[in-house]
């Protein structure tokens, strides 16, 4: 991908703006992060810190693949879930201090925000995979719903930043409280005797045991609302309750994001409805992918309830990372909103092929058998992965060449166009 001269000129106008309303971040984690960054030498680039944090999560995923490569829901050793909590907390910490390190080393740039958000986008899918396993959801539509909701949250925040120029973190945000909540889930799974099985127990069991008379009230509520199955309040599993909470959080995040966009657009004298068109790329691609998965309900090859779900979620996550990174690039370069990308076309082909028997009365071309589906879904993941790596490599190279600020080393270009070590880092090293 070639970044135009006009886009590169837009980078000169870029200036990071953020609002963090989290009390926990301000009074607890903030001081910790301020201390933590001092442990890192000024010779270490901020993007390197971000990537090291992501490596902790990637290592967590490899432990999952080692013990449960087909994602069937095997109970893992307790230390594995504990390591997931430690790895995610390490990622959060390094993700929080990379900006502080950038200011310490004079490396703050538009590329830093792009790299940070790109790693966040990848981490979102990785944590969906890990958290769904810890909650005992595994191969289920709940995992699919969790992926869609988590990515929607991330997209909404990025969409909001594009239109407002500011990254807003509310009193309860995903990067702060949301991550800590997932860490707690991993810890409970690690130390509870039931392991992941704990999350299948009814969430209101302690209340009913403590106050037996409350059961009559719950039964009346069930009858009034017409609740059935595991949606009955006395049967509602912990993991389903958590998913419901996440869905409500997603809706709340969308509403809050749009509220901030309305304020910014009115202040700038711009229309407030046109930004909503920016949700079309995400919801269109999500609909395509869910329809692809839905093929199994119409006699197609099974994806959701098969080992193929894991590479499919990986494909989805990398395709999303590419989509949202294009949006971040548009934000930092002051470019028009990106409404489509090539991965949407690839997904459309996979969806049409999977549903060929139902819609067109003919066998799929590339998903005509379980073995063929295995090959195609696995290949799709690597296609999305290499496409994103290609995009990231080209963007990083072009922005570093233009700004004269390196990506993974603490260097800049001097007046002669030569890469030299930053003076501050050299003093620190001495």
From TrEMBL:
Example GO molecular function: diacylglycerol cholinephosphotransferase activity
Cofactor needs: Mg(2+)
Q: Which reaction does this enzyme catalyse, per its entry?
A: CDP-N,N-dimethylethanolamine + a 1,2-diacyl-sn-glycerol = a 1,2-diacyl-sn-glycero-3-phospho-N,N-dimethylethanolamine + CMP + H(+)
Q: Which domain of life is it from?
A: Eukaryota
Per its UniProt record, what Gene3D superfamilies does this chain match?
Answer: 1.20.120.1760
Enumerate the transmembrane spans: 49-67, 79-97, 167-188, 240-261, 273-293, 313-332, 339-359, 371-389
Enzyme Commission identifier(s): 2.7.8.2
A Pfam family annotated for this UniProt entry: CDP-OH_P_transf
Which GO CC terms are listed, alphabetically? endomembrane system; membrane
Keyword annotations for this protein, in alphabetical order, are: Membrane, Transferase, Transmembrane, Transmembrane helix
Question: Under which pathway is this protein filed?
Answer: Phospholipid metabolism; phosphatidylcholine biosynthesis; phosphatidylcholine from phosphocholine: step 2/2
Instruction: Give the bilayer topology.
Output: Multi-pass membrane protein
Localization per record: Endomembrane system
What InterPro entries does UniProt report for this protein, alphabetically?
CDP-OH_P_trans (IPR000462), CDP-OH_PTrfase_TM_dom (IPR043130), CDP_ALCOHOL_P_TRANSF_CS (IPR048254), CHOPT (IPR014472)
Its family? Belongs to the CDP-alcohol phosphatidyltransferase class-I family.
Please state what the protein is called.
Answer: diacylglycerol cholinephosphotransferase
